[in-house]
Design goal:
The protein is mostly helical and 170 residues long. It has one domain. It contains six helices and two strands; from the N terminus they run ααββαααα.
Length: 170
């Protein structure tokens, strides 16, 4: 596509530099996409679990932002640096990895209770019974079916949790 210029040398040079900048930006964008694709190919199942866990935890914190801590009943605040509360799991991801993405197993918990109070399992259970009922708590406690998520399943779960978080933020 030809463009007409005023005929001044300065205008021609400026136009040339503008076109070169646009081409450079397009090349940089293409390079970024290519690099991202290469990095995605190097990801392990563990990397996808971590990404899904981040999306799940963010969803739970958004879901429970207006509720009190499941353990101590203190209102959850978001003002603190790094967020004021955690996504605490009743049955830990280490002891029950198959429940890491179970919404009944995860609730908003103050950092004090979750990190420094070792999860406060007894208080968590009391709060959990009040919130979801004894039948669902018993189902969590008796669930020992292992879960082996595939990479496509993890990608879909991550997308699902991100979408659910967006819907709650509206």
């Amino acid at each position: 596509m030809k463009h007409k210029l005023c005929g001044k040398l300065e205008c021609g040079l400026a136009w040339s530099e503008l076109e070169t900048a646009k081409q450079l930006k397009k090349k940089q964008m293409a390079d970024r996409k290519e690099t991202k694709l290469k990095l995605d190919k190097l990801k392990t199942r563990s990397d996808y679990i971590k990404e899904t866990q981040i999306a799940f935890n963010a969803y739970i914190r958004t879901r429970d932002r207006d509720k009190p801590c499941i353990c101590c009943g203190i209102p959850l605040t978001q003002e603190a640096v790094g967020g004021g509360f955690d996504c605490g799991h009743y049955r830990s991801c280490g002891s029950a990895p198959h429940l890491r993405f179970n919404e009944d197993n995860a609730h908003g918990q103050t950092k004090k209770c979750n990190r420094y109070g070792a999860g406060r399992a007894v208080d968590y259970r009391i709060g959990l019974i009040a919130r979801i009922g004894i039948d669902r708590v018993a189902a969590l406690e008796s669930c020992n079916t292992p879960a082996k998520w595939t990479i496509p399943e993890l990608i879909e779960m991550k997308k699902k949790f991100q979408q659910m978080k967006k819907e709650l933020e509206k």
